[in-house]
Amino acid sequence: MAFLLTYPRDQVPPDLQTKLEALQPTFYCPCRVLTATLLTPTDQEKIRTSTDLVLTSQFGIHVYLQQLMTLNETATLHVLSKKAANYLVGRVANPIQIATVESQQGLATQLAGLGPNRRICWLLGNLAHRSESIRADAVMTIYRNDWPVDANQQVVQQLKDSQITQVLVTSPSNFAGLRQVQAKLSPETFSRATYYVLGHTSAAVIQSAQLPVVMPSQPHDVLRQMINKMCAAAE
Q1: Cα distance between residue 135 and residue 132, in whole Å
Q2: What is the largest CA-CA distance in the chain?
Q3: Rounded to 10 degrees, what is the CA torsion of 149, 154, 158, 164?
Q4: 3-state DSSP assignment of residue 98
C-alpha cells in the first residue's frame, strides 16, 4: 500500500511528510513540468498599469516573484489562501488580499466588490482552470504546464511495483498527467485507490471518470485537511 501526491514534496509541511511516511510509502509525483514564459512589452505594460493582480497558483506566485514583481509594486495582490499570502509577506511591498473562501468562487466574490475603475489582471498558467465568475480586465499566461513523455516514463518506473491506495490530486492538469501514467501501468496499481482533492473543479473531473472522490469538509487549510484525511483512511 502507498500514498501518491500529485504535488511537490517541498511544498508539503514537514510534519505532514513525517505523518504520511510513518504510515506507508509515499510518492510525490506532480505529473507536470512548469516553465515560465517570456512576456511581450505589451503584456508587461498591462501588469504595470493594473491596480489589482490575481495569483491563483503557487508556481504563478514563484514566477511573479522571480520575474515580474518589479513591474508593479503598488497593485493589490489577490491570492486564494493564507499560505500563499504568508509566502508573499516580506517579499513584496504590495498590499495582499486573501479570498474569503479558499476557492476561485471565494476570489470572485472578493473581486466583485471592487470599484468600477479598478484594472484587474489575472496571472496564470496555460492549462489553469478559469472560473467565468472571476472579474478580470486582462488574463495573462505567465507559465506553461506540460507533461513530457520522458517525465511520464520516469513516474511509471517509480510506481510499477506499488499498490496505490490514497491519491491526492491538486488540479485537473495533475489528474490529466496522472491518467497518462496510469495508462502505462497494470490496472491493479490503482484498483483500490481513493482520490482526495482540494476543491470542486478537480472533484468534478475525477467524478466524470467514475472514480471515488473525497473533498474538503471545510474551505480553509485544505492541503493539511486532505492529507490528514488520507492518513486517517490508511490507519
Answers
A1: 8
A2: 57
A3: -20
A4: strand
Strand order in the sheet with 194-197: 26-28, 2-5, 164-169, 194-197, 213-214
How many CA atoms does the CB half-sphere of 6 hold within 13 Å? 27
Spatial distance between the Cα atoms of 227 and 73, rounded to a whole number of angstroms: 35
Other C-beta atoms lying within 10 Å of the C-beta of residue 99: 25
d(CA 19, CA 124): 32
pLDDT per position as a tens digit, 101-133: 888 888 999 999 999 999 999 999 999 888 888
| pTM: predicted TM-score of the whole model, two decimal places | 0.82
* Residue 33: C-alpha distances to residues 107, 148, 158 (Å): 26, 8, 17
CA distance 146 to 28: 17
